[in-house]
Predict the 3D structure of the following.
Amino acid sequence: MSALTSTLTRTAVLAVMIVCTFTVNDYDLSLLAQVGLTAIALMGLNLLVGYCGQLSLGHGAFYAIGAYTTAILVTRTGMPHLLTLPIALVLSFAVGAVLGIPAVRLRGFSLALVTLALAIALPQLLKHFEGLTGGQLGVNVPRPAPPGALTTDQWTYLVAVVLAFAVFLGVRNLVTSRIGLAMVTVRDNEAAAGAMGVPVARVRVVVFALSAGLTGLAGALATLVTGYVSPDNFNMLLSVNLVAGIVLGGLGRVWGPIVGAVFLTYLPLYTTDISQTAPGIVNGLVIIVFLLLLPEGVTGLATRLGRRLRARIAPRSTVRTESGTGSEPVRT
Amino acid sequence: MQQLVQTLLDGVGSGMIYGSLALALVLIHQATRIPNFAQGEMAMLSTFVAWELIDRGLPWIAAVAITLALSMAGGYGLQRGLIRWVERSPHLTQVMVTLGVFMVINGVAGLVWGYLPKTLDGPVSSGSLRIAGVTTSWQVVGMVLVTVGMLLLLYLLFSRSRLGLQLRAAAQNPTSARLAGINVGRAYGIGWGLSAVVGAVAGVMVAPQTGLEPNFMFPILLYAFAGATVGGFSSPGGAVVGGVLVGLVEALTATYVGFIGTELSLTVALVTIVIVLLVRPDGLFGKKEVARV
Amino acid sequence: MLEVRDLTVQFGGVKALSGARLTAERESVTALIGPNGAGKTTFFNCLTGLYPVHGGSATWCGKQLVGLPAHGVARAGLSRTFQNLALFPSLTVLDNVIAGAHLLGRAGFAMGTLRTPRVRAEERETRRVAEELTEEIGLREVRDEPVSGLPYGTQKRVELARALASRPELLLLDEPAAGLSSPEVAELKQLILDVRERRGLTVLLVEHHMGLVMSLCRRVTVMNFGRTIAEGTPAEVQEDPAVVEAYLGAPT
């Protein structure tokens, strides 16, 4: 894509986002905001699982850390909402780095183990430090005051989707860069990656911390959208749902998290009529069925179908295989 | 002094549970090199089955016997029906599939039995027992006896029986085992079945104390993982010892370290895992794994 | 010059290497031979930082290699291929080679995310280097194909190209001829000589193909049971009684 078309595309996407602010009702805007912030969390997790080949079962915990950071800063210190976002990101990044250092150097599932432990332990920790976290009851957080004539929902929607767009562009740059290629080599063959001069342990720790940071940012945005945090919203199942989101969207694919976020946001709306536990069952089945039958996810399938279609329309011109290094699926 | 002995006894009691589940994890890990994250939920499902059977009027012992048989069949079926299809996949895929199983079992149990805690009675009175000035409950004594008995049976199975030999052979070197005429697929299935049984025993023993609801195994699973990490994922005996050690640490910190109490017990398990991974990543009894290039 | 002295490694109680030594002059082609299980691949893995070393030293042009992590060894100018191919299966041939050129770039996480003009220039440059290399190693036709579907001999070439991409000074080849047909071995020999000539490379190879070893190398080091038992020209080591014994067993 030439520089001009990419600038045009970016402007067009931003324009659509802004137009939506004024044409879509508040309820749907809050759902779209949820899509945006979930996409941020999934883009973080996808960096770790899809590109670097490491599993985290505890990203719900980083989401919680971000959410509580914003909740506490806003209610205790009266800090402006937007200012708390970078702090939430940095704090989750730091916790990720501290946990990642012992976990990622070791055998494959050590990180899964440590993050699982974190996900199980965190709700109890949040309840324990009642003075800070409001304990079992959680914290009610005043929603941000919108600038100008916007409603609060319009404002939080804009913040969420614009940030999601920025993160999308950054992540897409990163995975096609030298470092993105290094991540894939670490996933594909650790020994060979090291022999090529890739500092395997450092790449893993930084990617883990980065993905934790992005998920923390998503959690902070969730507080702006819902105005409420409570320990039981951040249990183990949240972490597994996030995994289901990236598996459905497509591991190691830039568009995967977007599809996954739409799925995770709208699924409960349609299934909780059946049962409160239905989304969990669906997500569990999604993980199993996709990994067995469609490991490249929805976006992978779409790419494949699109390629076939183009080949049929223009059989002469050879369709170039996508050489964007990062967009290759996890091999299964 | 009495308080110390009592604390230690309680620790050993719950440690036996953790050790059992840790053993179940290690059995599967030995055979297939993956940690089964659905282990706790499988045990939860078994425990609900036992509860349902008792609720319908079966005597305790019959209900548990049927449950164990069903767990065996369920574990076998899960491996043969699902897990075998990812046997050749990368570990990441295998682990995520066990995670999918986790979600499905958890959701289905919630759908069928709901989230209100149920009480499951133990086989023995919940009365207490005094030996040499130390008070303990029959339940703790029962747990210790049952676990020791189960370990003995497993030990005999693996070391003395023909089946045990086949299972070990299939786990250590599937290709050679296949050449020697061992049905490796069946052996893996039995391995999963056995660990489902061990998990079921743990679930039935622990439910009378914790109450029974779909999420009740989360903390137990965490302790079991801590136990397996302490003992080393390559050592079945180590897993049990590790589980007991974790139980002791939990009991001791809860009693003697004021700010931890019972409320931060899960954090103790998290910290234990992180420290062991930092200091001795292969656990106390594990063999060092050398990556082959 | 590569100088290895008294390299010692143990796994559990077993000494995999004890007192392995080797020297290789700059710009020479040296072979490391020995019966199966002699410790040759372990020796490579220790030199390149994959296994922890328990004793001894290894220096390349005065730089100590023992104790460096794998990527540190690569930075010191060493590059290697693997006995059982270790390619990145989800990538194309060209991307495998670009991945091999990791050390030529500088862009880190932040720069990669922002994708500044400098990063783009750097990427174009790396790509050009990789494209030239695929040309040189004869991989032009398969450049954009996924590496996992290619024939074995071609995959070995990709690995060689990838190892050269970091512009190493010392190239370690672990059984480059294994699994190749004899015309392919002849081609390989020429290829190794060519790339060495053009780059002033030092080459160290583990090889069982004696024809290749004898015609390619001026110096041969022989290992058995984790120790070096002979060093010298191909003719010298062939005469060495210890070497004959290692390969054929002690005369009874």
In short: Chain C touches chain B at residues 11-12, 41, 45, 50-51, 82-84, 86 (CB under 8 Å). Residues 23 and 240 of chain C are 18 Å apart (CA to CA).
